[in-house]
Amino acid sequence: MSASSITDLRAEWEAAQADFNRLWAAADQRYGEVADSIPLPGIVYGRRGWCITSEREIDDAWRLSSATKTRLKARLQRQLDQRDKALDAAGLTELVDQRDAAAKAMDRAAAAMAADRSGTAVSLHAKLSVVKQMMAEGSDLSGVDRDVLLSACADADAMLATHQELLRLSALMGFGPGASAGPSADEVALLLSLERQHHALDQEYEAIPDSEPDAVWQPVYQRLSDLEVRIADTPITTMAGALVKLRLARGPVGTGDGEVPTHCMESACATLEAVAVSAGYVPPWPGRSTVAAGGAA
After folding, report:
1. Band of pLDDT at residue 289, cut at 50, 70 and 90
2. Dihedral (Cα; 77, 82, 88, 89), 10-degree rounding
3. What is the per-residue pLDDT for 294?
4. Dihedral in degrees, nearest 10, Cα atoms 35, 36, 40, 43
């Protein structure tokens, strides 16, 4: 189910709940206003004052004869008919029917939410929000409310598996929550630090006038070259680490000398393919994979 659909169901349930509460209060208030004119819901029989409110009570009275039961049912029906007419005249029947319709609408929306298996944060939040409101209304979690809660639990289980996979992929990328701790974080922090040093040193080198003697620019150039070799030789396992090496190979920052660009390019390609394979990618030509045996460096 889409996020908009589950959100619509939550809104539908909440609208029906608001109608139900409003109609309940209206019916309760109206009944209080006309209670004195509404006949009691039943009849009184016998010297002990047995109050009968349903035909089932009459049927269960095994001591009564069939004729007596028939008469009592007729009396009860007349009493109930009078009560119904009084309720209709007071507008209570319509209010109760509307209230019952709102209750059914709540049940339909809740049942649809319980049947959902989206396994998303949106669906989990929608279901828990509805269950929270149900419990605030006195729910005992014995009906459709329990089904909604169980569906929310199923969403949480699905999200846990997804969350763990996202953390794993995040660690492979070298950024995000999955890379905030552990070897990948240390790797990326080191390479980014070296890259910043390299950029600063490159600016220092570029600022040296051409008229300066070798003794001025050669030490800076050597330090720049040493940093590039260190970056090229640093082992990498993440996409973020590969990007540092690709930026160095591409230039224009840096010396561009020697085998450093080629070494960086090969290391980055091997690592990017290893990351992709770990994420589920299948190379079109496995025999020509750039992933070196024993991992990328």
Report:
1. low
2. 170
3. 36
4. 180
